[in-house]
């Protein structure tokens, strides 16, 4: 938990003080990449809670999902299709599913630990 | 080396947070500038912009019309200035402030010995010529202008203080026909001179030059 709070603080600090801005024309693609990265992040957390976390799967998923989602959005723009919507729907659904599963796992763990006491 | 899952996830989280903050930084000025956050607001905003565009187009149309009006006024002003300049030039010529060229008459007055041509005779001649539409007059190369004056002392005639002597050459620019008819009118200058026995010669010159008299 401390690690996450630390990461949040450092991330906000770095983001604010970084003397660089994402060009507006790429802003949309970065948004999709962030959604994909969040999906991987929650997937990783869920896997960790289920005790089946794999570093390679997590890193490859984190990187590739973001890149592919941004690429999809870019291709969609070129073709005149809102392909980014597909990524938003898929990753959005998965994020909610992962969050639901995580909630259940955390709740179960909590209840079990209370029962043991 | 095996990296702890918690650390890896936290690192990924850090990357996502950095990206999120950068994204906020990029989009925030745009949102502040555009204003609307939802599509319905965007539609209202777009409609407002369209209304503004239409009113601006009307404004532009009005301004273009105004520019046209001003252009017309400017042209009228230019015409007025041109005619004013022409009038000034005309008056400068009439007042003897400016040299003139053009068609005109050369009147040579040669009195006999001991015969006197009075200043009044010259005044009559000058008045007749002005009456005939003369643009410029000179007597023995003395330009008759707005401040010229004639006077006589004994038998000598002076124009603006300068003595003029016989034979007298009167140069005049204007309509040669009108000026000639003015001089030759019955009872006119020519007849008066003939009665007095003064020799008078009137010739036409198409390229006459009368220099400016200047202010004396």
TrEMBL record, chain A:
Domain of life, source organism: Bacteria
Annotated membrane topology: Multi-pass membrane protein
Keyword Transmembrane carried by entry: yes
A single Gene Ontology CC term: plasma membrane
Transmembrane is among the record's keywords: yes
Keywords assigned: Cell membrane, Membrane, Transmembrane, Transmembrane helix
Transmembrane segments: 25-45, 57-75, 81-102
Location(s), subcellular: Cell membrane
Family as reported in the entry's similarity comment: Belongs to the sbp family.
Record-given protein name: Small basic protein
Annotated source species: Psychracetigena formicireducens
Automatic annotation (TrEMBL), chain B:
InterPro entries linked: DUF881 (IPR010273)
Superkingdom: Bacteria
Organism: Psychracetigena formicireducens
Protein name: DUF881 domain-containing protein
Entry's family note: Belongs to the UPF0749 family.
PANTHER family, alphabetized: UPF0749 PROTEIN RV1825 (PTHR37313), UPF0749 PROTEIN YLXX (PTHR37313:SF2)
Assigned keywords, A-Z: Coiled coil
Zinc as UniProt keyword: no
Coiled-coil features, chain-numbered ranges: 46-73
Keyword Chaperone: no
